[in-house]
Amino acid sequence: MVDINLLQPPFSLLDDKGRQRVRDGVDLAYFNESEVILDAGQPGEHVFLIHKGEVAELDLNASERERRIGHYTAGDLFGAISILNGTSRYRFQAEQESLCYLLPRALFEDICTAYPAFDNYFRQHLAEKARHVLERRAEGGMSMARFMLARVAECMREPVVVEGHTTIAEAVTHLRERHADSLLVSHAGRCGMVTKTDLLDALVQQGLPHSAEVGGIAHFTLITSHADDYLFTALVSMTRHEVARVVVMEGAQAVGVVELTDVLGYFSSRAHAVSLQIEQAEDIEALARASARLPQLIQTLTAQGVKLRFAMELLAALNGRIIHKAFRFLIPEDRQSQSCLLVMGSEGRGEQILKTDQDNALILADGSDWPGIEDAMGALTDTLGRLGYPPCPGNIMVSNPQWVASESAWRGKIARWASSRDPDALMNLAIMLDAHAIAGNASLLEGLREHLFARGSHDELLLSYFARGVLRYSTPLTLFGTLKRPEHGIDIKKGGIFPIVHGVRTLALERRVAATSTFARLDALVDDGRLDRPFADDLGEAMSLFSELRLRQQLESLEGNDASQEPNRVVVQRLSGFERDLLREALHTVKEFKQRLSQRFHLEY
């Protein structure tokens, strides 16, 4: 028996008995520098796990410059696909003296048969691999990782539906008999909702008689979900919209209701405690105390294995509630209806994990008059600073008059930016494409977004200039397709996150996709036929991987464990073999995406 570390995937997918079979069955082999370990066209007879040394993966059909497509070091494995496919497609050659553990083909196939998860690992694409890791990140009990995979159908109640002519007295009886907190109301061809609180308000505050019909007091603007949606998204919706329940729809038919109490009973979430503290805040000081808890919440979510996309959505909702409430504290109610506060950048896309610089703007309704608006916006900027959102170094904030304008003035700005196409103008267009209405009259932004789409979606020259941004930064891969490994680390934001975000943003402009989240844009582009689902999934998982690696570095800096390391830089040498493998695949996905965009928008010219 040899001493081999089997704690990393895919061997972590085996139980103790399976790992012992591996230890009992492997041999240790030595290979000289430049020795061919497995040649193209050769039958796969072993899975190779590198103990020491480096191995290159070579495509003999490619040009000399592009031949080296992979690079493996200690902890990496290769050869499994050659067994599954019958022969090796590529050559694997030692780049220095190397020691490898050899797992025989027969034993590998037996283990694959006995452990389907182990077998599936070698057949999965990047997106599937990343999901596989998430599912197994936490074991036992109702862990956060398992909660993240729960569906709305697992937690929804059967709806109690009444007609609009049902009286308040009858509605109360229905609630008592069904032990429910809400009723769905079918009235005049619409579906609405009435809650216990609505009925109490109708009787006590409005003084309505018991015989009054519920159709007159029901709410017909519902927050909805679908049975196969993730339960966590329902929690995000409740947080974002300040509601305690969502209606589950199947087409135009209401099939269930998910109550906040049920979700919290299914999984007790610290996120709700923070949300409750935000909603109960009655002044800026109380809001600041709630805001200060967000970094700790992020650390908890990531430690419990939350899928980063969901964590981003939840934190965007919580940040949105904080900024919205600050706006309400500071701005008179009559001014709120005449204006729309926008957040932009990563906050606008809902992809901000730890708080970054303020990126905001204000739209004023045409014809509105707001004396002293400069002082009001300066106070808002200062307040957001107290809440943990530092000023933007580029001065893209409401305290800058350039980012406060009427509807007509904003349309003029967009037209000038689209016509000039200089770098600053293109950056401003990108900022506005990511804008999200956080407070005030959201319809003001909807009209402006439609104007932006009308001006830019069919302008091929503008789209070409706009798309060139994806080539601004090089992908941190060597000419041979391996990871660059500078001592100071690779900039994962420039090399990985930005090309995906901006490339997807460009396609969203072209296809008039109103969503601002990169993930939501990817889904919309698949529905539109602009991207195929497998590639969109790989882009989404690559984005999640880059963001997770970046977040890990940011949290280490926050905790003081590595204050010298820049928060956007990832040191490849510190990653596990499996993480390097995922990172390499993810960056190759970015490289392919750049190539597709170059062909579509003729960036080679």
Automatic annotation (TrEMBL):
One of its GO terms (molecular function) is [protein-PII] uridylyltransferase activity. InterPro entries: CBS_dom (IPR000644), CBS_dom_sf (IPR046342), cNMP-bd_dom (IPR000595), cNMP-bd_dom_sf (IPR018490), Diverse_CBS-Domain (IPR051257), DUF294_put_nucleoTrafse_sb-bd (IPR018821), GlnD_Uridyltrans_N (IPR005105), RmlC-like_jellyroll (IPR014710). The lineage of its organism: Bacteria, Pseudomonadati, Pseudomonadota, Gammaproteobacteria, Oceanospirillales. Transmembrane segments: none annotated. CDD domains: CAP_ED, CBS_pair_CAP-ED_NT_Pol-beta-like_DUF294_assoc, NT_GlnE_GlnD_like. This is Cyclic nucleotide-binding domain-containing protein. Pfam families: CBS, cNMP_binding, DUF294, DUF294_C. Gene3D superfamilies: CBS-domain (3.10.580.10), Jelly Rolls (2.60.120.10). The keyword Transferase does not apply. It comes from the Bacteria.
